[in-house]
Write a structure and sequence with these properties.
By secondary structure, the protein is an all-alpha fold. It is about 90% helix and about 0% strand. The chain has helices at about 1-5, 10-60, 65-90. It is rod-shaped.
């Protein structure tokens, strides 16, 4: 207890600033990670929902059905996930 008795107001202010900075960093990291995980699932959902439209466009150039589906799903997922990544960096 003698340690606390030897602290002055400046020490308490510095400790408060450090504590607030730690809390800010903790929550900023949590929010960023939460949004990143959410964007993976949301990108997957949107890709699965929207890939048939893109697949019809790609079938004009590649006539193999399964390959066009894989390409359209992959390109769509990458585009949506990248867009969310940029948006997360801007927001957080």
């Amino acid at each position: 207890m003698s340690f606390i008795n030897n602290l002055n107001n400046t020490d308490f202010i510095v400790m408060l600033i450090i504590l607030l900075a730690m809390l800010y960093g903790y929550f900023r990291g949590f929010i960023r990670e939460f949004l990143s995980i959410f964007s993976i699932f949301f990108s997957g959902y949107l890709s699965v929902y929207s890939y048939p439209n893109i697949s019809l466009f790609i079938k004009r150039f590649i006539e193999m059905g399964i390959i066009t589906d894989v390409i359209s799903l992959s390109v769509l997922f990458f585009f949506i996930y990248s867009s969310f990544g940029i948006l997360i960096k801007v927001i957080v």
